[in-house]
Design goal:
The protein has about 425 residues and is of the alpha+beta class. Helices cover about 35% and strands about 25% of the residues. It has 3 domains: about 10-45 and about 210-275 and about 380-420, 3-Layer(bba) Sandwich (FAD/NAD(P)-binding domain), CATH 3.50.50; about 45-80 and about 205-210 and about 275-375, Alpha-Beta Complex (Polyamine Oxidase, Chain A, domain 2), CATH 3.90.660.20; about 105-195, no CATH class. It has helices at about 15-25, 65-70, 75-80, 105-110, 120-135, 140, 145-150, 150-160, 165-180, 185-200, 210-215, 260-265, 315, 340-355, 405-420; strands at about 10, 30-35, 45-50, 55, 60-65, 80, 85-90, 95-100, 200-205, 225, 230-235, 240, 245-250, 250-255, 275-285, 295-300, 310, 325-335, 365-375, 390, 395. The strands form 5 sheets. The protein has a 7-stranded mixed sheet, with helices on both faces. Strands 10-2-1-14-21-20 form a 6-stranded mixed sheet, with helices on one face. A 3-stranded antiparallel sheet has the order 5-9-6. Bound molecules: flavin-adenine dinucleotide.
């Protein structure tokens, strides 16, 4: 590497920017990553509280079979801890039913006659669909033109699934993944995500999701990532910081979220029609549970609930809570119009009805309202937008593809490959 060589400047140290930086550095190119925030990770951040809880900024998991994740991450060093495949579903009438491995071993999962989730033909369709997604590559599913033109809800209906299984299984499960309980997300993305759950595991690093971007940043030479360095503008190959300082680059990669990309990129390359899915994650502390945890997600099929998904991260990765305590993560998707205190107060009776009266005494720890969680990915949107703006200006991030860690990492890699070509 030539020290006099101008660096490739990457704006944003989220997964996309870090992936791009890692591939370029590995190929011997000089890179400089400018990050506005006080740590790397973007939407993948974890806070350590004074009491010793690790709070991911919103409930989030890593899917182990994401192709880009398999390509880039060192799983062993992250000490990944897995949720059990399946879920406990709370039905609108308050009954609960447990699905073990519904997407990995659908036959076993759905034979329980007592599982009030869907009809026998529904269960056979799951079996068929698992076969379908297993027989295709993830790239084939993502670029499946027919399903790309359809939203998930109409795709499920057209496939023949009953309204009952859509409401009691697909809506709470995939609505939680898409942060979209209407299931208006494009069906090609549904097919891809279904495949990931059918083939792999949902995991978290032992010490929180932020360990993922930190692992990538640690591969870069010291000084490569500059934190607390917001970029104001890009003018050709000159990058202007908020401090008015300017930096000269060999090429510039805008690897921010879509909102910032809109401001930094020239109008013709800025993301258009940018809309977001919102989620709110409310954390509570509970006393440690006795016995072996089932490590299953809890999904709520009740249409008027505020507690949509509940997880116990410390059951899966004990480092998420101090000894003797249990971390409870409650997700509410979409806009709710409540203050944090109002939301917590409304959640507690719901949780008590669901988990027993002791839940009313769970201690509210912190609330993360995340208005810009996932870019909306509607039917008909291309699976990959242009990443190259000019010979010296590129863009990457989930806004340029579909709403997933895999997309952020993939677009980061693809931009690095273009720069190296
Ligand atoms: C609550 C939640 C749950 C999620 N769950 C999942 C999940 O389970 N599975 C999954 O695959 N995906 C999930 N996602 C989505 C996933 O986290 C994102 O798709 C991915 O992290 C996006 O990465 P990115 O690099 O494209 O963007 P970002 O993470 O947004 O990174 C952009 C970076 O650019 C920086 N930046 C912005 N403006 C400037 C500027 N002017 N100057 C310098 N830096 C700037 C930002 O500070 C940020 O660090 C979830 C997201 C959220 C919020």
């Amino acid at each position: 590497m030539d020290a006099a060589e101008k660096p490739i400047i990457i704006i944003g140290a989220g997964l996309a920017g870090l992936a791009c930086a890692c591939y370029l550095h590995r190929a011997g190119r000089r890179v400089l990553v400018l990050e506005a925030a006080d740590a790397v990770g973007g939407r993948v951040r974890t806070d350590l509280t004074p009491e010793g809880f690790r709070l991911d900024r919103g409930f989030q998991v890593l899917l182990t079979r994401y192709p880009e994740v398999e390509r880039l991450l060192d799983y062993g060093a992250l000490r990944l801890q897995a949720y059990r495949s399946g879920a406990v579903i709370r039905l609108p009438d308050g009954r609960q039913t447990t699905l073990h491995n519904p997407l990995q071993r659908p036959a076993a999962a759905f034979t329980a006659l007592t599982a009030p989730i869907g009809t026998l033909p529904d269960k056979l369709r799951i079996l068929n669909f698992v076969r379908h997604v297993r027989s295709r590559s993830s790239g084939q599913l993502l670029s499946h033109n027919a399903s790309n033109a359809q939203d998930t809800r109409s795709f499920l209906r057209e496939y023949g699934w009953s309204e009952q299984i859509i409401d009691t299984f697909f809506r709470p499960f995939f609505g939680g993944v898409f942060l979209d309980r209407n299931l208006s997300t494009a069906a090609n993305f549904f097919e891809f995500v279904f495949q990931q759950f059918a083939k792999g595991e949902a995991v978290v690093p032992a010490l929180g999701m932020q360990q993922i971007p930190e692992q990538l940043a640690a591969r870069l030479p010291a000084g490569t990532v500059r934190l607390n360095t917001p970029v104001e503008a890009v003018e050709g190959t000159t990058v202007r910081l908020w401090t008015d300082q300017t930096l000269e680059a060999a090429a510039v990669v805008v690897a921010t979220d879509g909102e910032a990309a809109q401001r930094l990129l020239p109008a013709e390359a800025a993301p258009t029609d940018l809309r977001w899915r919102q989620t709110t994650c409310t954390y509570f502390a509970a006393p440690a549970a006795a016995g072996h945890p089932d490590k299953l997600l809890r999904l709520n099929a009740a249409p008027d609930a505020l507690a949509h998904n509940v997880a116990f991260p410390s059951d899966v990765a004990p480092g998420y809570a101090p000894a003797g305590q249990r971390l409870v993560s409650v997700s509410t998707h979409g806009a709710h119009g409540l203050s944090e205190a109002e939301l917590a107060a409304r959640l507690q009776p719901e949780l008590a009805a669901w988990f027993g009266p002791e839940a009313a005494a769970w201690q509210h720890l912190r609330t993360y309202v995340i208005p810009y969680a996932l870019p909306v990915y509607p039917a008909g949107q291309p699976v990959r937008q242009n990443l190259k703006v000019t010979d010296t200006l590129f863009r990457c991030g989930d806004f340029a593809a579909y709403p997933s860690q895999n997309a952020a990492l993939a677009t980061g890699r693809e931009v690095a490959e273009m720069l190296l070509a």
